Records
---
Amino acid sequence: MSTPHVIGLDFGTDSVRAVVVNALNGEEVSSSAHFYQRWKEGKYCDPARNQYRQHPLDYLEAMIKVVRASLVNAPPGTADSIVGMSFDTTGSTPVFVDEDGMPLALKPEFHDNPNAMFILWKDHTSIKEADEINELAHNWDVDYTKYEGGIYSSEWVWAKVLHVLREDEKLRKAAYSWIEHCDWMPAILTGNTKPEEVIRSRCAAGHKAMWHEDFDGLPSKEFLTKLDPLLAPFRERLYTDTYTSDQRVGGLTEEWAKILGLKPGIAVGAGAFDAHIGAVGGGITPYSLVRIMGTSTCDIIVTPLEEIKGKLVKGICGQVDGSVVPGMMGLEAGQSAFGDVYAWFKNLLAWTLGDDADDEMTNRIIPELSREAEIPPDDETIPVA
């Protein structure tokens, strides 16, 4: 029997990466990366309004390219030895779908409507809605934010979907439910996209959607109706159960197997968020702090369930059973704008170079500044950080 391999797909803010790994020893066999084309062109975004949207076709087209490329880069015959694949994505990055689970942006009438696309994690158009959620939750008989650090963010799903529903009447009439990016990828590859049947990520639901076993799932229909009656129909079209990332969602369909160059039926795992899976990749152990540094920076800690039972940590981005390592409590915090700040600073310094500056030239700015900052000054009066 040939050595079994698996494929991991990491959908980041700007691009997707695929890696082929030996399932027996964890050795990396090959990899590939590809930028989202529409996103790279700046489409569907309005920075002045803090609007950042991504078209589902960017995800699908980039996924096909990186999976095929990673198989080409691997030793001959590797494709036949792939036994499973799993996903992580940014989040909260939800999209509205129809009754069949199709993102509305894939329908002709919504193809160029940003509200029908995935609302990227760093979209901050829903600050008002987040404030309303916090106000209501803190005065409700159950504080649905208590397992999410006590403060609900405009980067999270309920604030985002409420903002779009209020803003777009045409979409409001067409929207049947919503789904997170990390849940949509496994769903579409296994052919199980019905909103009520989709396997939902414990990571996404617990950290961003106010899901908890103590609440019997998501916030109650009464709470959502009080927040805004527009949300009421969605409660029964969503979910109660959630699944950790070690769970099998289903098998790869024949259609997608042919497209990707893989065997039909291979296992497809439940999705999760990039930072949480990054912590697993970093070899996280109880009480160690793992920092995943990219466009944003996330701080992740795991702890045994019995040692945190009954304790709530204020100000973080959630504490969720199994969101990082199944059987342990996962805690998340971080900085929403990390790599983005460096990119802004680089562009600020590079504006004098004009349109003639190429990527190679501008990309040297931050590393060169870093090297200069590391040189101890001769003058003792100069402070060193």
---
Amino acid sequence: MIRIRSILCNWALVLAVALFATSPAHAQDDQTVVILVSIDGFRADYLDRGVTPNLSRLAHSGVKAAMRPAFPSKTFPNHWAMITGFYPDHNGIVANRIEDAARPGEVFTMTTDDPFWWNSVPPVWVDAEKAGIRTATMFWPGSNVAWGGRRETTGWKEVKGGTRPSDWAQFNMAVSDEQRVNGVLDWLRRPANIRPKLVTVYFDEVDTAGHHYGPNATETLKAVAEVDQTIGKLVRGITELGRKVDLVIVADHGMAGIDASRTIALGHVADPSLFRTIETGPFASIEANPGKADALAAALLKPHDHMQC
């Protein structure tokens, strides 16, 4: 009997962990595999656009939950929140671009794999691996990091120690969705003793299209349809293999249209001499200049139209 249980939601950490925790640690040929799928930037109402037959079918037959992204609603903070169970202000990844006083002159970006920035709390694959449960990640922010390790600075920047998934792939946008799905299915074909029991896979094209064209553009809808077809291929592949799978599909944040008339100029909110900007976008991350923190706070905390600090 082939069983595919599906959970389609946009903030699914509790569901993912609960399903994962029910799986026994010992390898058995009929053991259920949990596959956690992220569709970056998949706005909740994309399911209502008439181009997602596969996702809509899974939502209808499984469980669907409302989107509740953590603040800030960006890719790396929310992916790390989903996989660790901690909100960004506790998991260490508070933005896509970060500075830390403990590392003066350095900046965290979405290509940073130095464990220093990630070591606040462990992702679920670290707990799984330590419990003897094999994991595999076909991309997930942070999955290439040797969690718990440290960077050696003598000679070259080499990481010592740390835990990664048993199988992981360095993120590369050139790897097509079909190749990603084929990689996951190849893992499921393995003998039970080396088959992963927790798998993650990440799709980025909906987010990319949404940023480039906006959430209502034809190009974005095309990306939504394409990732839906990819999910269909994954489900068919699982069925053909006869594996028992709990399929958990999540998104990290939504997407809203913007225009120049709705831009907030930070220099109009506070004197530019009071701060420097670290990151902008749907929210701004700024740092007070030395000795200017009180003046900056006073300027920011006043009531401002269309803005909250």
